[in-house]
Structure formats: C-alpha cells, structure tokens
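quick one, 281 residues, struct below
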Amino acid sequence: MTIEVTRQHASCGAYIRAVDLSRDLNPGEVAGIRAAWLKHQVVAFPDQAMEVTDIERFATYMGPNGEDPYIEAIAGHPRVVQVKREADENTPIFAETWHSDWSFLKRPPAATVLYGNIIPPTGGDTLFANQCAAWDGLSGSMKTLLKGKMAVHSARKGYARDGMYGERDKGRSMAIKYGDSALKTQLHPLARPHTETGCLALYVSPGYTIGIDGIPDDEAIPILKELYAHQSKPEYLYRHKWSQGMLLMWDYRSVIHAATGGYEGHRRLLHRITVADRTPQ
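---
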C-alpha cells in the first residue's frame, strides 16, 4: 500500500495517511515515511489507535534509541516518557520556549515521536520553525559572521537546581529530574549540517543556547537575540493542531519547536520517544 502525503501550507509539515501504525510496517512503508519526514521535517499521522508497544515499534523503525536525560521513563518502558498536564495544574506550560530538544548533548537526537492519548478540545498547539529556511534567509553578512562559529549549549536554564524545572518547580505532574549535570556545556556549529539531507540549519535556540564560543557575552548575546527573532519569523513557521489518536514526528536537525497552552481546566496526556541520529556528527 502506498502512503498518502499531504503537504501543509507552511514552511514545513505534512500529514501522512493510508498507513496503520498499530501493525508491523514493511520496508517500503518505512522508507516512504522516512523520506516524507526528511522532506517535510514534521509529519503527522491522524486517527491512529496505538498502545505504548506500538509507539515503541514505530520509533524503532525510525532510528536507534535516543536519550532523555531529564525526564523519567514510565515503568516497564525505558524508552517512553509521558508529557502530561492535569486539569487543575497551575505550573508554567512545559517546553513553551523555542528549543531543539537536548541540543546540549554531545550527540543530539534526530527526532521525537509523540502520540496524543488525551487531547483537550481547545489549545495545546505545537509551533515549529524551519531552521534550514531560517539559515537560508539570513543576510550574507550574518552568514559570513556565523560560518565556522560554535554555539554554546547548556541545560542550565531548564534543569539546573535554580532552573525553570528545578527546586522551585512545585506541583508539576510530569516526572522531570533536575541536577548539577545541567550546568555542563557543549559546542555545536551555528550553521549545522543535517546528517542525512546535508541542509545547513541555524542551530541555536533561546531554550538551550547560552553563548557563542570565542565571542564575549556582551557581543554574543545581542547576536543571539537577533538570531532568535529571525529564526521564528512567520515565514518559517508551522502551527500544528492536535487531535485524539494522532502521532507526530519531527526532525531536531532542521526545526525548533515550542509548546503552547490555552487548555486550562483540561487534562492532556501524550507519550513520547526520543530517536537517536543514525549518523551522528
């Protein structure tokens, strides 16, 4: 059976239909899904009836096991974490700052697979921004300035003891861990080549980038602020709307993303697996 791919009217994003992810996939289906994902960067599979084991099997088709350093896995499923929020929860929305997950690792992941078990009737959209297009859209002078430069990435803003999800974050239903390891830093190219497509992506984000290697902070911070404003311009955006039983997969090597709220008073539950890069840099 040939999968059906419908491109969204945005810089990235597509829907994939005519495939049942609750069963084993054949090599042609896997190849078709991966090709669509690499092309469109964010792919959604609506109307999927999936158990946790089905999500695990699908993620295995897409790539090796990834790492989730600051979220505890659910019992009996070491790859799977829950993204959840209770109806009466008052903590800040998780992951509402633009970011590329775990970019502070030496080998950042390739993808997240996220399945919507309980989706509120309103709100909860996920925003994506195409960073290959963002790099292409930079001025020639900015590209010259950034080419060859390394950005400094760290988990400290989120997961250090004094971070957003640190000691002061009380009443959150998600199983988030924090610790001093979040203070570590990792360098990655600001213009980072995609390991499969080769496209150059602007690889910074306000969530995890804290500086530019070799440039004093008083000079680097204004540059980064300019890049943050640029990378989330409307022409690079795709706003994804969830539905019950939808599975979503996106490419960390070419997009950044941010969560949104707007579903106060409603419970939200998703199951997530991080997929490692097949060909890490």
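Residues 50 and 128 are 24 Å apart (CA to CA).
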